[in-house]
Amino acid sequence: MRLNTALGYEVTDYELQEAVFVDFMQNAAEQYQMTPEEKKAQEASKKKTKRKRYLAIGLAAVGGGALIGLTGGLAAPFVAGIMLSTSFQRGVSTSHAPFDETPGAPCLPL
Fold first, then answer.
1. Largest CA distance in the chain
2. Cα–Cα distance, 102 to 87 (Å, whole number)
3. For residue 47, pLDDT beyond 70
4. How high is the pLDDT of residue 15?
5. Domain ranges of the chain
6. Sign of the CA dihedral 13, 16, 17, 18?
């Protein structure tokens, strides 16, 4: 309120500006009414946009899942080989019983 008094504005000025703005918006809304053809075109555009968005989301999900599966599947033998080699170097081979039958990275067919 200090800024308003410093600039010389009063609350009634804001109320008047608000009333003028509301009248302007109501008149503009009354003057422009969409025709049925425009409404149909707008609905068709909305449906098309919605379908494209869902398609993009679906493709991103499938592509991301495939990428994660592919990279995880390719990286698993290397990770297992590294874990086995480091565990054998440390002499702790008995604690990695599930990896005992895993051939590791050196046995990958290239």
1. 86
2. 13
3. yes
4. 83
5. 1-33
6. positive
Mean pLDDT calculated for residue range 47-69: 93
Backbone angle region of 34, left / alpha / beta, with phi > 0 → left and psi within -120 to 50 → alpha: beta
Helix (H) / strand (E) containing 27: helix 11-31
Q: DSSP string of 61-95?
A: HHHHHHHHHHHHHHHHHHHHHHHHHHHHHHT-GGG
What are the residues whose beta carbons fall under 8 Å from the beta carbon of 100, sequence distance 6 or more?
A: 93
pLDDT by residue (tens digit) across 4-35? 777 777 777 778 888 899 999 988 887 888 88
Task: Look at residue 104 and tell me whether its pLDDT is greater than 70.
Answer: no
